[in-house]
Please model this.
Amino acid sequence: MTIHQLTGMVATLVVPLFAVASTASVGLQFTPREILAPIRRGRLMLAALVGNFVLAPLIALGLCAALPVSPEVRSGLVTLACAAGAPFSLQLSALAGASMSVASGLMLTSLVSTTVFLPTILPRLLSGMDVNPADLALLLFWTMVFPLVAGSVIAYKAPRLAEASAPAVGRLARVSMVVMLVNQAVADHREIAQLATTLAIVAITGMIVLTCATGWLLGSMLGVPGLSVALSVSQRNMAAGTLVASTNLPGSAAVTCVVLSGFMALAVLLPVAGMLGRRAGQQ
Model:
């Protein structure tokens, strides 16, 4: 068995495990009423939807127009910009001390919206991209929506069971995330290193910083939690982005761009979230 075959097998197991564990761990902490409460806040939902499905794609397109990146990198970055509802936004929100009920509500809304937005809009932004709505919807439902809803139902019906199991599921999410990132680094280290020496790294970093800043500003302008909106908008859905890029452009720099974007998001957002969480704890 080659190293690529081994890392491929690991990725097949650990990527969906991370998504399932991350969303289930949040569901176990909140009842359906608590998770759905933020959805009834119109301005919060407006900020999340505009940030995720208007500003993020526009920022990606603007950066790719301003910087001489390759068409494949452009395809990867725009694909990722159209994919919202990342489960890791929940981990960032917890680290930053943001409201987890708001974070889970934003993730659920963004996730459901992505299943409609991505296959509808992406082919119009990128020629040659053919997204199967049914495949994408099934992937997102079983790995993210269903675990969140199931965990939340357990929290409502069996609160003691939910309270006892949530810490273990949370640890599983963190461990699977580390394994996923290390495995991806081993599998694509040459391609990632090569792409990191081009202007693609500037476009990727610029997208993370600008989406975070504009999300925070948008939330503040609408009088809703700017931090929650910023984390929702700046952390893109790697699972959905990787599925679409690998299906339509297998083995291309578009897939590597999505992977590198995930690493850069961690490098930029984890320290920011940690700093905010420490400052919130000191107040």
Residues 159-195 form the longest helix (37 residues). The chain has a mean pLDDT of 86. The radius of gyration is 18 Å. Residues 3-274 form a domain with the Na+/H+ antiporter like fold fold (CATH 1.20.1530.20).
